[in-house]
Write a structure and sequence with these properties.
The chain starts with a strand and ends in a 21-residue tail after the last helix. Strands 5-4-1-6-10-7-11 form a seven-stranded mixed sheet, with helices on both faces. A two-stranded antiparallel ribbon has the order 2-3. It is globular, with a radius of gyration of 18 Å. With about 250 residues, it is α/β, with parallel strands linked by helices. About 35% of the residues are buried. It contains seven helices and eleven strands. It has a single domain, classed as Spore Coat Polysaccharide Biosynthesis Protein SpsA, Chain A (Alpha-Beta Complex).
Length: about 250
């Protein structure tokens, strides 16, 4: 059986979330922190041998105070990230177990994830070495100039919105990051593309939303009700039903 390490980046600034009490991965959603929902989708899989959560160094003390028991129960590794997302992934890659054949990256703030989508990405990456969830762009796209006026309508033919999880053969991802040279990639697939390597698309779902603003929490809570229950059904910590820090 192929073995996977999973990286959950949660070191962003959450500037659009606008909550003085929480950064978005740590905000409560259905009685658990958002990042815990994401982690639960991976921890009990037989093909996942390691889950790494990446947090900002400035969040370490607060994170340990609130979530040390969760980390112990879930059996995950926590590493401190860097200034940019790619820096954070690079820090996590340095901690990946050597026996991992593949590395999967999933946004910690994308909790509405179904097991079947993970299955499909994991199956495809074993065939193609690089696979990501993505959905076709359905809205009309406009290119806008500096004066805030429409310059053109962009054809949406063959355009896809990338999601996570994204999974890669370990050596391929390590090579992509070794040749990053400071490039500010917006996702990991972009770095693999820069090597000239193909990346396969696995059909995703609009339900697999990334939480960006506080308003997204309401949508995510409804979306989660339509997903299968996570395999991990124990309480994440003794106060899982309480919003202790608001």
């Amino acid at each position: 059986m192929a073995q996977f390490a999973v990286i959950l980046p949660a070191a962003g600034r959450s500037s659009r979330f606008k909550d003085k009490h929480y950064k978005k991965p740590f905000a409560p959603l259905a009685n658990r922190a958002i990042w815990i929902h994401s982690a639960e989708r991976f921890i009990n899989r037989d093909d996942v041998i390691q889950v790494i959560l990446v947090i900002a160094a400035e969040d370490r003390d607060d994170f340990d105070f609130k979530f040390a028991s969760n980390v112990a129960i879930l059996g995950i590794d926590v590493v401190e990230g860097g200034a940019e997302r790619a820096d954070s992934i690079e820090a996590a890659l340095a901690r990946v177990k050597p026996e991992a054949d593949f590395v999967c990256i999933h946004d910690a703030a994308r909790p509405c994830l179904a097991d079947v989508w993970i299955d499909r990405v994991f199956e495809e990456v074993q065939r193609s070495q690089a696979a990501i969830l993505a959905i076709p762009v359905s809205s009309t796209l406009k290119r806008v100039g500096a004066d805030n006026r429409v310059e053109e309508t962009v054809s949406r033919a063959r355009l896809y919105e990338a999601q996570t999880p994204q999974a890669f053969a370990r050596e391929l991802l390590l090579e992509a990051y070794a040749q990053r040279d400071g490039f500010a990639a917006t996702d990991d697939a972009q770095l693999v593309e820069r090597l000239g390597k193909p990346v396969s698309i696995v059909p995703g779902s609009p339900v697999n939303m990334k939480i960006t603003t506080r308003e997204d929490l309401r949508l995510a809570e409804q979306a989660m009700k339509a997903l299968p229950k996570p395999k991990f059904d124990r309480r994440a910590h003794p106060f899982a039903d309480d919003d202790m820090w608001r």
